[in-house]
Automatic annotation (TrEMBL):
It is an enzyme of class 3 (hydrolase). This is Dihydroorotase. It catalyses: (S)-dihydroorotate + H2O = N-carbamoyl-L-aspartate + H(+). Homodimer. It comes from the Bacteria. CDD domains: DHOase. It comes from Paralimibaculum aggregatum. Pathway: Pyrimidine metabolism; UMP biosynthesis via de novo pathway; (S)-dihydroorotate from bicarbonate: step 3/3. InterPro entries: Amidohydro-rel, DHOdimr, Dihydroorotase_CS, Metal_Hydrolase. Zn(2+) 1 binds at H14, H16, K100, D247. The modification N6-carboxylysine is found at K100.
Amino acid sequence: MTDSLTLRRPDDWHLHLRDGAMLAGVAPQSAAVAGRALIMPNLVPPVVTGAEAAAYRERIRAALPAGADFTPLMTLYLTEATDAEDVARAAAAGLVAAVKLYPAGATTNSASGVRDFGKVLPVLERMAEIGLPLCVHGEVTDPEIDIFDREAVFLERVLGPLRDRVPGLRVVLEHITTAEGLAFVRAQEGMAGTITTHHLVINRNHILAGGIRPHYYCLPVAKRERHRAALVEAATSGDPRFFSGTDSAPHADDAKEAACGCAGCFTAPVSLPVLAHVFEAADALDRLEGFVAGHGATFYGVAPNPGRVRLSRGAAWTPPAKIETGAGPVTVFDPGFPLHWRAEDITETETS
Ligand SMILES: NC(=O)N[C@@H](CC(=O)O)C(=O)O
Ligand SMILES: [Zn+2]
Ligand SMILES: [Zn+2]
């Protein structure tokens, strides 16, 4: 049995770091392992302009522990008023790596998102010209549509027609939760998809069977077991169109453990050991590096991180149930199985 593994330092191609006291509490958790992350812009108010992204990047840098080697890659939150020229300037300056599309009302802090997709076509066309990817929260918001069908219906109603209108636009279907989402990415040119750590581990029973477990509630909501199995198959297949975006989405416990608890799983502190477990169980440890540190970098056109992280397998360890932050305690994702893998040394330079 393999008991040690050295990987390129991972990237996290979908991460929520929040702001203020929460940012200060959670940024070190990601920076401890990941070399870079694509930072989601759904703050209140959202990060819409290049100037707002530059200011947010400074706040993130200020929240990192001294000496941390972690590069935040910024995104802009697409609104119906987004200025295509501002987006193009921010991309040309190397400030933003992608633009994020939230259908209005689909998820946490998405009220400023898009209602009329026709209104954002000029921005999308400009992005296609300059090769800037669009990251998509792929769920319809129509209250008539069952929550478990919202991703599949979005592909048909929104993403398919959008791709037909702007075929040159590079698109990332974020946090894929269904076999339909995987099939959509595989069937199209110029597309990729992120898969979260938690969607590789939980299905909808984990949320609802034997009691309601708010810390497993996220959006898109976890689906049936057959979808989870399809996600594991895609993530561990070595297909370069699929890569890791944790969607680590911290909320203070009082906002999760409530009559109307909010969506998001905080996975950052355990993501890499959990992924190692999932890949080992699929007999695919040799493909873990591509998933966490290779395919996404290739899609986004950046070199892989120079540093390395060593994972070792040993006695089971128990991660902390919560971390304390200035915004309150935040429960850490519990995979429901003992963790044997641990991230040990992080080296910042090339090793042989
Ligand atoms: N995934 C979630 O359940 N929540 C995310 C938003 C998102 O990525 O949709 C959040 O910001 O909390
Ligand atoms: Zn989302
Ligand atoms: Zn997210």
